[in-house]
Design goal:
heterodimer, A: mainly alpha, 7 helices, B: 248 residues, alpha+beta, Thrombin, subunit H, 3 helices, 23% helix
């Protein structure tokens, strides 16, 4: 198991997720919908650090992000499952680092994340929301940004863990 | 002779590494339960140099003038009828100006974060006004910030009326930029262009605040007529809002 979570500054980059969620830069929106910053941070983290750390990071992110939003809808199940799943993928023999793979994983992850939100909104009787538009716009934007942002994070964090092992 | 066997306490050392993680989990739960108090305040502190200036765009000013004109004419019309009722209310509330420091109006949630909180007298439930009219209500507060639930949010419901026909209804957010006005009765006689204001009977928001203009009426909706309302406060462009405080 990589010891990425023992590096304080690596874990501290997770603080960027709630800050970027609050800042919501206008030039990084698609039809007013921002990308899923949690997915863009969690994907490389889990790929490098494994399933347990991935699920733990997903839980931590989800608890913080739930605190920043109104209502009882939660991100916890989706982010924990995604952290575990991507951590398992990262433990396989073949390294995942191609742009297409990262984009596809981020796209699927955002679809899963949005799907759980959509189900919760429907459960709460708020089916009138333009949920599908938000889901598609966020998935597309996150999938497009992932090859750029996740590649850099993967490179940086793999170098860091290689240095720790060496 | 019996060999002495000393009692041995169970080994607790292997669990010793757990306590920092338990502390972290407790801290995260505290963030969750306090609705992100620490993070909102940290974000407010970090972004304070970049908060929007007091200057508004020309079209925001014109929207404010339009809102003021509509509100003035409607207040004049209602003044005589409500004079006795108004005398029962408290003095005018203090308006607290607050910058918009985070805006989330196009995603899963419809909310704003403003840079004034409990320390400035803002309380949960306070109405939030923007140039042009009502924007929403304060949903939660931290010492230096307040989270505003916009009228467009799926959970937002406030009582409104159409002053021209004196018919009341419930303004319900549906997640789009245009909330739906559900009248309390069939065929109220509303038509596109009618002004919508907060209801004099509402206990949640002050009466007769401009909300928007009816854009489309659906008389075939069941059980009662529905109308799509274009809000008069431009959510995407508002940099400063006002919160009437001390009104209870």
């Amino acid at each position: 198991m990589a010891a990425l979570h023992r590096q304080g500054w690596c874990a501290a980059t997770g603080l960027l997720v709630p800050l970027l969620t609050l800042a919501a830069p206008g030039f990084l929106r698609l039809d007013g919908v921002p990308p899923a910053w949690a997915v863009l941070w969690l994907l490389p983290w889990a790929l490098v650090d494994g399933p347990v750390s991935g699920a733990g990071a997903g839980l931590a992110l989800a608890l913080v992000l739930d605190g920043l939003h109104l209502g009882p809808v939660t991100l916890v199940p989706a982010l924990v499952v995604l952290g575990w799943w991507w951590g398992r993928l990262g433990r396989r023999g073949t390294r995942i680092e191609r742009s297409f793979s990262l984009g596809l994983l981020a796209l699927l992850g955002t679809l899963l994340l949005g799907g759980t939100l959509l189900a919760q909104f429907a459960w709460l009787g708020e089916a009138g929301r333009p949920l599908l538009r938000t889901l598609l716009a966020q998935s597309l934007l996150t999938g497009l940004l992932a090859p750029m942002l996740c590649s850099l994070q993967l490179l940086l964090w793999r170098q860091q863990t290689a240095g720790l092992r060496g | 002779m019996q060999t002495g066997r000393s009692f041995r306490a169970p080994q607790l050392r292997p669990l010793g590494w757990l306590w920092p993680w338990l502390l972290l989990l407790l801290a995260l739960l505290a963030v969750r339960l306090s609705k992100g108090a620490g993070f909102s305040d940290l974000y407010a502190l970090l972004t304070r140099p970049f908060w929007p200036g007091s200057a508004q765009g020309e079209w925001v000013r014109s929207a404010q003038q339009l809102g003021d004109q509509m509100r003035l004419s409607q207040l004049e019309a209602d003044n005589r009828r409500l004079r006795q009722l108004l005398q029962l209310q408290q003095a005018d509330p203090v308006l607290v100006g607050a910058p918009v420091i985070s805006r989330e109006s196009g995603g899963w949630w419809q909310q704003l974060l403003i840079g004034k909180g409990a320390l400035h007298g803002v309380r949960a439930g306070d109405p939030v006004l923007a140039p042009g009219g009502l924007l929403g209500r304060v949903a939660s507060i931290t010492p230096t910030t307040a989270r505003v639930q916009l009228l467009t949010d799926g959970n937002s419901r406030i009582g409104v009326w159409v002053p021209r026909i004196r018919r009341h209804g419930l303004l319900t957010g549906v997640g789009t930029s245009r909330p739906v006005l559900r009248f309390l009765e069939k065929d109220p006689g509303a038509r596109p262009g009618d002004l919508v204001a907060t209801s004099p009977a509402s206990t949640l928001v002050p009466p007769n605040l401009t909300v928007g203009v009816i854009q489309m009426v659906d008389d075939r909706a069941v059980p009662a007529t529905e109308a799509v309302v274009q809000l008069s406060a431009p959510v995407q462009a508002v940099d400063w809002v006002q919160v009437p405080t001390g009104r209870r």
